[in-house]
UniProtKB/TrEMBL annotation:
Domain of life: Bacteria
GO MF annotation list: 3'-5' exonuclease activity; DNA binding; DNA-directed DNA polymerase activity
InterPro entries: DNA_pol_HolB (IPR004622), DNA_pol_III_delta_C (IPR015199), DNA_Rep/Repair_Clamp_Loader (IPR050238), P-loop_NTPase (IPR027417)
GO biological process per UniProt: DNA-templated DNA replication
Protein name: DNA polymerase III subunit delta'
Species whose genome carries this gene: Peribacillus psychrosaccharolyticus
Length: 328
């Protein structure tokens, strides 16, 4: 976790070393950037029985393991019940915190999707933040900070979570068992870990890769076959505009791989399984023509956002991607 958001980890470590942990934090940022994991890491660090010299949790003591398993009596996690976080949930939390700590000298509450609080819940929380119980820490998580009351924001230390870097996302996916090629492809398409994991197990996405590679292969050989392939396979799979956009992203990555090969940067190629064929094709392309091909795909993506007919758009793209064609 510390590798994913190193600046935030370091800042929190320094706060604990200096004894300057504030009573309320707001972790804001896109979905999949590690906010909840960082919240649980902070909870562990505050309650760890054997922290490291740099105040990271040991991950082995009784407290760390109970927090990890969600059953530490002094760590409370609130999530929306249905569509929102209700006033009753905040009220119950306040009552719980009015009691003496069960085991530790510290109590921690984490509110996930804090922007989902009802108006009544937000006002109740505000009173809680204005007069926080001693030795407590609040950790609020949100993807939409603008939906929180300004008065709540003013009482929290706000930490903004950056999108995961491609390298970190790929490593994290591989740690979860996603193979190297898939993790590489996915990390070029999104910086969202949750979306990345969903893509890795999605049969549609696995099939999409095969169809895109096959289209690329057919384009190289015969424009008429490529147009026929669009009708017989491509449009049956890429039915919606967002699916077609994803397909164009994958196609762009193939041509980008050709460029990496020409630049002798084979370690950056994402379609490693097609390396031999890509190397053969790259020998017969000028960088100018390759740049034209990539530009044609980006132009198709741009037109897709308008009301351009997807079928005509793809047919034109296929013709543009024929070697020796003139680009319009």
């Amino acid at each position: 976790m510390s590798e994913i958001q190193p600046q935030i980890t370091t800042m929190l470590q320094n706060s604990m070393v200096k004894g300057r942990v504030v009573h309320a934090y707001l972790f804001e940022g896109e979905k999949g950037t590690g906010k909840k994991e960082m919240g649980m890491l902070l909870a562990k660090a505050l309650l760890c029985l054997d922290p490291t010299e740099s105040r990271l949790p040991c991950e082995q003591c009784r407290n760390c393991k109970r927090i990890e398993n969600g059953n530490h009596p002094d760590v409370h996690v609130l999530e929306p019940e249905g569509l929102s976080i209700k006033k009753e949930q905040i009220k119950n939390l306040q009552e719980e915190f009015s009691k003496k700590s069960v085991e530790a000298n510290f109590k921690i509450y984490l509110i996930d999707k804090a922007d989902k609080m009802s108006v009544q819940a937000a006002n109740s929380l505000l009173k809680f933040l204005e007069e926080p119980p001693k030795d407590t820490a609040a950790i609020l998580l949100t993807e939409q900070m603008q939906r929180l009351l300004p008065t709540i924001l003013s009482r929290c230390q706000i930490l903004s979570f950056k999108p995961l870097s491609r390298i970190h996302l790929q490593k994290r996916l591989m740690d979860q068992g996603v193979n190297e090629q898939n993790s590489s492809i996915i990390s070029h398409l999104t910086h969202n870990y949750v979306e990345g994991m969903a893509l890795s197990s999605e049969e549609w996405f696995a099939q999409a890769q095969k169809i895109v590679v096959r289209l690329y292969e057919v384009i190289k050989t015969d424009s008429l076959k490529a147009l026929l392939y669009l009708q017989q396979d491509w449009f049956l799979h890429f039915k919606e505009r967002d699916q077609l956009d994803r397909g164009l992203d994958l196609l762009f990555l193939i041509y980008k791989d050709l460029l990496y090969i020409q630049l002798d940067k084979r370690n950056l190629v994402v379609f490693q399984n097609q390396m031999q064929e890509l190397e053969s094709h790259a020998l017969h392309l000028s960088q100018k023509r390759l740049a034209d091909y990539m530009g044609a795909i980006l132009e198709a993506k741009r037109k897709l956002l308008s009301n351009t007919n997807p079928q005509l758009l793809m047919e034109q793209l296929v013709l543009n991607l024929q070697e020796g064609s003139s680009f319009v």
